[in-house]
Amino acid sequence: MTASLAAIGRSSTRLTRLVEDLLLLSRVDDPDTPLRAAPVALHELVHRVLDSVEVQARAGGLTLSYAPPSEPVVASGDAAELESLVGNLVGNAVRYTPPGGTVTVALRRSAGQVLLTCTDNGLGISEADQERVFEEFFRSSNPGALARPGTGLGLAIARRIVQRHRGRLELTSALGVGSTFSVWLPAAT
Q1: Is residue 144 very low, low, confident or very high in pLDDT (cuts 50, 70, 90)?
Q2: What is the domain extent for residue 101?
């Protein structure tokens, strides 16, 4: 009985997360929904996201690495959307990195922009999958990736948020080596 209740609880959590992701994707994809840009302290936001995944990372035998910048790094954007962006990137890195691996987040300001990088030494993404990884509902053909839960919405949401903030999102990855997601966003003035 307890196992059945636990399974129902996990299914309920997955469905709730799926509905929340679909609603967020719909909102950030809607050209009639204005971006509510304000200064966002990304250095603090990254800390919150890392705190929220720390237990999961430890349980998976991972090391989270983040050296906070020496000065505040402030972007111009919607705080909730940027938290979803960072949460999706860091969450994926934690999910797809095997035990003993490391997830590193770096943040700095450069020439009127903010650069956030999320690097892991996880499964990596094949060249063929890199072409489609930002599409809604896309799941990698890699058996190691398919063995992990996911909806294929996280990176599509991340891309839409970055586009909506007039930023840039790039992926560098090699299968079996790991991935780096780099995000450039406008700095707050």
Answers
A1: low
A2: 2-186
